[in-house]
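sorry for the late reply, my laptop died twice this morning and i had to redo everyting from scratch. anyway the thing you sent over, i finally got around to it. pasting the sequence first so we're on the same page, its 361 residues, then the predicted structure underneath. double check i copied it right bc i was rushing
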Amino acid sequence: MKNSKYIIPFALVVTFATNCKRNKKIEEIKYDTTPYILETGSFPPNLINPDNRLTIQGVHLGKMLFYEKQMSGDGTLACAGCHMQDFAFTDTARFSTGIQGKKGGRQAMTIFNMAWHGNEFFWDGRAHLLRDQSLKPIQDKLEMDETLPNVVKKLSAMPMYRDQFKRAFGSEEINETKISLALEQFMNSIVSNSSKYDQFLKDTTVYTASEKRGFKLFFEDYNPFFPDQSGADCAHCHSGANFENDKYMNNGLDDDATVTDIGREAVTKMAADKAKFKVTSLRNIALTAPYMHDGRFNTLEEVVDHYNAGIQPSSTLDQALEQTRDKGLFIDAQDKVDLVNFLKTLTDNKLRSNPEYASPF
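ok and here's the structure:
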């Protein structure tokens, strides 16, 4: 009996452990359709497809997939590798590098405010819906170089993904369609509308004299007959809340003889679309260098120089640009400074730091 003092404590431990096991609650994974609310501010109604409305769980799943490196062939590259939050979800390289070290042929596009894009996706518009766009880089040999069946197999082997697909879609089954819908939801959730420009419109900040003059140059029409009164007419193509027009246009980068990337023509097979590319948003433009579909310009000053004196003649050149080709935009050195200073007011620092868009891992 000299060791009996140890018997009661041991029994208590066993009883305590047993009770803990009985009382421990196992999380029940439930389908959750709670809507995800976009902070759209003064933006017009979004263009999100009604068959894939945003939910909290769907957006979260899309974010997981966006940052998941197992989506690539060798497990080293996620979508976020070429679409970095700190650079308004684009790449800093002229041509992004894929998992095999191969370079693409175009500069990575930004993916904020996608909920207001209604005219196809990619530079050439080869993807009809955002969900279609979401799967193509995964399968591209120059980018993530993976097959969709392999992606499904890898994700299905991970309990956290089976659970999250059930929360988002009602079952643990993982398939290509659900992956595309989740990625579409996350990309549609990324909103940029908190720049100095937005604050200026709400009268909660003031522009410097240079920014104010740049604002005027940006929005005023081009006038070849009265150069002193002429604006840069940037809003001809970059208009509305998102500073783009959802069109495909030839902006005079090359003449007919030197065009190497036919752009939209490759998709539509129409000669009238030769060298036309999707007009991109100018929001966050100061963060997204290099510029143009092929990243040929490194600075905003180079971009302004192109439109001022570098427009090349071609059969599909936009007519508004054609009329500026001979005389240019009448922009002098100070005009260029002012215009660039205005463009910098379109930077949304909240977008760069918003945890809603950051990696969940």
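Residues 7-23 form the longest helix (17 residues).
thats about all i looked at so far, will dig more tmrw
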